[in-house]
Amino acid sequence: MIEAVFLRESIITENSDEARELYVQSRFGHILQDGRVELSTLEAAYLLDKKKVRIIDGRGKSVDMARFVRKAVRFDANFRVRYRVFHDLRKRGYIVKTALKFGADFRVYDRGVKPGEDHARWIVYPVHESEALTWYEFAAKNRVAHSTKKRLLLGVVDAEGDVSYWEVRWLRP
Q1: Most buried pick, 54, 99, 115, 129, via CB within 10 A?
Q2: Residue 173, in any domain of the structure
Q3: pTM for the predicted model, two decimal places
C-alpha cells in the first residue's frame, strides 16, 4: 500500500515506483520533480476508498475515509457531490482530471484515452438534484464547453447518492 501525507489541500505520496505507477497506468495525480506524486483530494479519496493508499496527517496519524471527507469539506464545501461524480466516472473506466483552467470541475477523457494522447471529450459540472441553476449559469457552462470544443456533461447526484448524466451539445438545425 502506498503511503501519502495530507498537507492542506493536496496529498503527496511517498517516492516509490508504486506511486509513480498510479500516474503512468491510470493518470492519478501528477509527478513532482522529486519523484513523488501529488494527488487531488478527489483522487486521494478514491484511492483511499479502494485501499490503494494509506493517508497520514501532518502528525503521522492514519486518516480513515470519514475523517478524510471531514477535512476535505473544510476546503471544498461541495466535496461530497463532486466526489460522487468523480467516483462514478472513475468506476466506469474514465480518466478524470481537473478543469479549473476551463472554468469547470472536471475534464473527462474517453475510455482508453490518456491526457496528452488526445483531448478530453467532456467538461463536467457535478450538481446535487436539489440545486438550482439559473439560465445564465447554464448558458455560461454551455459556452465554456463549446469554446473549448468539448461536450458539457452535468453529473446530477440524487438524495441516495446515485449519479445521472445529462449531456448538452450545440446543434445546428
Answers
A1: 99
A2: no
A3: 0.91
Vertex 118: Cα angle to 113 and 119 (nearest 5): 105
Q: Domain limits at 119?
A: 79-168
Q: In b/e form, how buried is each residue of 128-142, taking b as 16+ CB within 10 angstroms?
A: eeeeeeeeeeeeebe
What mean pLDDT do residues 84-97 have? 95
Is the pLDDT at 144 greater than 90? The verdict is: no
12 and 60 belong to one structural domain: yes
Helix or strand or coil: residue 133?
Answer: coil
User: Which residues are known catalytic residues?
Assistant: 109, 119, 150
Q: Are residues 161 and 83 in the same domain?
A: yes
pLDDT band for position 25 (cuts 50, 70, 90)? confident
